[in-house]
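RETRY 2/3 - previous attempt timed out on the joint model. Re-submitting the same 84-residue input unchanged.
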Amino acid sequence: MKRERNAKAGTEAKSQLKVNVASKTIQCKVCFQTFMCTSKIPELTQHADNKHSKTLQECFPGHGEKENDGKADNKTNVKANGKK
Ligand SMILES: [Zn+2]
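RETRY 2/3 succeeded.
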């Protein structure tokens, strides 16, 4: 009984790992190519443009240039203040 339980726990841990990996990648909606979550917007834009002649939003919905509206900076400031 104990051994069976251990085996099951191992499988669950593995599937959890897979989910984590998937959430850390950005997938092109058109060709399903995956990119690391650390990929920069210009890289994704280049892929959309070169491969599909589409916009960033068409290939990677939700990956707009949100970093430019200043909200990201506010979050960073709050975190820094909390530490001090
Ligand atoms: Zn693509």
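Confidence is low (pLDDT under 50) at residues 67-74. Closing ticket.
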